[in-house]
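Sequence dictates fold. Below is an illustrative record:

_____
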Amino acid sequence: HTEDYDKYKLERMEAQFPDEIDTPRDQPARSRFAKYRGLKSFRSTPWDPKENLPSDYARVFQFQNFNRVRKRVLSLTSDTDFDAPEGSFVTLHIDSVPRDYCQLVTSRTPPLIVQGLLPHEQRMSVIHMVLKRVDQFKDPIKSKETMVFSCGGR
């Protein structure tokens, strides 16, 4: 029971103080936190938004004017493409699908969602979102824990 209690105590401390880092006793805090810098004013201090980014961010596509690009891309889409109104139900007829797969898909309770990509939507981008914890999820989430999100639909 002591292991469970220790684990609970650790998770509780992490939930209460998620951004705190203990200063190591074997080295001075000045050298341990040398890569961090202080800002005189968070609002008015100039900073380069591309400094110290992971290498994967070099592949991120950045729009100069998103609204102009969106209008141009939507004007290039063919009028013959099928576009169902938002929130409507459609019937799809698909040929050459194995019977086992059809039974698997139709046995599931949620509806099958089908969507397509516009020509420019194969690029990696960055999305900013706000997450809200649901009441049913009680486990603590440690700070800097890697999480995977699946976001879909426009």
About this structure: Helices lie at 2-16, 29-32, 66-76, 99-106.
